[in-house]
Every structure is written in structure tokens, then in C-alpha cells.
Amino acid sequence: MAKLPPGFHFHRSNVKLIMYYLKRKIMGKKILFEVISELNIYKFSPSDLPDKCCYKSKYLEWYFFCPSERKYASGFRMNRTTKIGFWKITGRDRRVLYDEKFVGSVKTLVFHQGKAPRVQRTDWVIHEYRFEDKDMADAGFSLVSF
């Protein structure tokens, strides 16, 4: 991918993240500037993630394309465990609309360190974006790849 030009600002919104970055990634299309690294975040401790990000920002935010992995081969639950803990869903999914059409959702997860019964909630939070497009799914695109 091309080097970022001087003055480039990664202005992120839920719609842009889903309709430009995630949609292009799923479709195998080129993304002009590399601002989102591809990384299986579940192989790392949350404190290791900032160093894995390709776009450094003044904000405490990092973006990754993370391949999805099912917990069980025949199930729908995702595997979000790491070596030192797990990411737990918090709250409800938030719907993302574009031109009044449902295009995706955002799920909030909080990292919990340890294993039951000794689990400690941490301040690490991730927002998981999901692209939804019935026409693309019907055409054979896997929308849960990242």
C-alpha cells in the first residue's frame, strides 16, 4: 500500500469504517492507504496491540482487520479468548445506517483477565465492526471473514 501523504488524517466514523475499509477488505479490493493492520488480536495481550498498529495516532485508538474464528466448528459463537483472558460482549449491538439502509453493526467488548473463578475486568475496550449486505452474501462473499 502507498505511504501516507503529508497532512493525511484518518477521520474514522462507523459508516466509513464499514462502507469503505471493511467492505473493500471483504471484497478483496485495494485500500489506498495502509491505516488498518491485519492481525489476529486474540493471539496477543491487549497491552501488546498498540505496537502492532501500522497507523500511529495521537488518540489511544488502534484499528485492525481481525480474521473471525468460530469457537466451535458447527456453532455461531466467536472465539475471543487470549492466553491471559478473554473479550466479553458488553451491551447491545449498535446498528449502523447509511442512506437509511442497515449496513452493519458495532459490538462493544471489554477485556477480562484471568480464568473463572478469578477474573478481573480491565479498562481495555474494543469495538467490533460487522458489515451486513444481503446482496453480497447472496453473491457468495463471506461477510464474516474479518
Automatic annotation (TrEMBL):
PANTHER family: NAC DOMAIN-CONTAINING PROTEIN 86-LIKE, PROTEIN CUP-SHAPED COTYLEDON 2-RELATED
SUPFAM superfamilies noted in UniProt: NAC domain
InterPro entries referenced in this protein's UniProt entry, alphabetically: NAC-dom, NAC_dom_sf
Start and end residues of each NAC domain: 4-146
Protein's name in the database: NAC domain-containing protein
A GO BP entry: regulation of DNA-templated transcription
Gene3D superfamilies noted in UniProt: NAC domain (2.170.150.80)
Highest taxon of source: Eukaryota
Keyword annotations: DNA-binding, Nucleus, Transcription, Transcription regulation
GO MF term list: DNA binding
Organism this protein belongs to: Solanum chilense (Tomato)
